[in-house]
Amino acid sequence: MNKKKSRIKVLFISPLVKNNKETPPHFPLGIAYVAAYLKSKGIYVKAIDFNIDNKEDKIVAIAKNFNYVGVSVFATAQINHGYYLAQRIKTNCPKVKIVFGGYHPSFLPEEAFKIGFADYVIKGHGEIPFYELIIGKSKKNIIGLSYFENGTFIHNTINSRTNLNKLPFPALELFKLRKYQDDVHVMPYAKYTAIDVKSSMGCPNNCSYCSAPLIYKQKIYYKTPQKMLKEIKYYIERFKIRYFHFEDENWLIDRKRIERFCDLVIKNKIKIKYAFMSSINVMYDNLDLVGKLKKSGCVCIDLGLETADEDVQKNIHKSNSLEQLIKVDSVLKDDQIFPFILIMSFNVGETLNSLARTTEFMLKLKKSDLETIEYLKTNSSPYGFGQFATPHVGTTFYKNRKKSGIFLAEKNYDLHIWTKPSFLPYSFLNDVPKIIKNFNSKKNMEEYLETFEVDLLRYFDKDYAKQFWNLYKNIDSKKSIYKNYLEKFNNISLEKYVLMIGMMAKLFLICSKK
Ligand code: B12
Ligand code: SF4
User: Fold this and answer.
1) Which domain holds residue 470?
2) Cα(499)–Cα(478) distance, rounded to whole angstroms?
3) Which of 140, 247, 409, 480 is in Cβ range 3.0-4.6 Å of 422 for a Cys bridge?
4) Are residues 141 and 237 in the same domain?
5) Which residues contact residue 192 at a Cβ distance below 8 angstroms, ignoring those fewer than 6 apart?
């Protein structure tokens, strides 16, 4: 490396995820990967995660000492803050080059130039393109780069490919690691510092709400089991971390690779606890591996059910067999591994019936004596809504959003977040609310509501009973949910009203069983 190059300094920033009080900050793994690569080439790197350290008032003073600022936008709910920080930096230090990377700018690069003060956007994997940009490679030959030249935007193709075995380990040393906790979900391990790791990237599936198929084009890139073991050992030795969440889209998909990794962990007596994500069918096909998974430290598996309704499943291009999930759930619970079943409400095709079906299905599952951390309790509770479907920029869901429902957060990126309903499908709004149980008094209704107070308190104030009673008394069960809203209930927000109807569906279901 020549002298001129060694003087180059890059500051990475992870902007605030807005409206996300419920979920603890996630570790900015994307930055850690790109920064590690630049560092391995002799470039000076630093990083600020605004979700941990809100250095807004110092950002200009810090940024002026750098040649490049890399803004990493993992979630759309970060983008406005990212644009704001970029504007502050660019207007005060015009020489600093602003480079945007991550999911949102990868799919809407021009926005970053028009309102985000970007000099460049790197779409898809950032390690090699960012380095090539710094060393002055011809822009037209940098895969993934978007730039502005002679009055036009130029968009090179997205960088979909990566070679995980050749990349250096992510630069964890740039972050205050002790601030990132909970990741293995299950107590008591969730109390300790845990980090996200990635041992493969990509997924063969094509779910309508997911960005993975757009980045990876349904291909998968793997780390070898040996590299996985080396990485885990490195985290233990250098950072004293023994708790991990494998954030691979579908960890078990190459069974041989994972079996070998488990064997290596067991043989080398590596003491770790970990969680991972898997699709339900892949987990079902590998149930005979559960013993080995357990022995190597697995305590939790995230499984994406999303809905128990077949029509909604079809709409989101997902086909989960409920029988398979019942079996998986039971085997894991018997082995003291927590199956964290993910639900997503208000996808295209959702109706009162489909919400109730999902609730009913979740209620049938075995009870587990394993305790999870607090914020996840309502996520996998039968009475909760889990995540709310959000049409994320670039996805098939996003492309079709206008014909399938009302996107409440269309103009407000800060609300593209799973804890707030941002999309209401017409299927739900046009459904007709059937009142199937006669409550004879408000008190009588309150008794039923109390059954799922923990879930209710996530969405409503403490005095929710009065509002539910008003809704119950005044709803017209011959008119659609939306018509009722327009005629009688538009003194509250549509979002709140729809949540109440959804909760009613769950409530009626429980009542009808009594
Ligand atoms: C694993 C994961 C998580 C993990 C976090 C893992 C992590 N630390 O990265 C958890 C479970 C915590 C999580 C949470 C959320 N997630 Co998530 N998550 C994913 C998932 C499955 C993979 C992400 C991943 O691979 N990270 C690993 C790193 C290495 O990759 P990366 O961040 O993409 O970084 C690379 C490039 O983007 C680029 N890059 C990144 N930053 C920069 C910066 C610069 C300057 C450059 C040049 C390049 C660059 O280079 C990196 C290396 O190749 C994706 C779906 C998918 N398969 O794509 C969704 C996804 C990213 N999540 C998403 C969302 C929305 C969220 C949440 C906001 C929840 C929600 N649904 O509302 C929360 C945020 C929580 C929080 N507290 O901040 C959305 C984002 C879509 C959007 N436009 O908003 C995605 C795309 C899922 C989807 N619906 O399609 N998630
Ligand atoms: S299975 Fe998961 S990672 Fe794969 S496309 Fe579907 S949601 Fe995305």
Assistant:
1) 431-512
2) 20
3) 409
4) no
5) 181, 242, 243
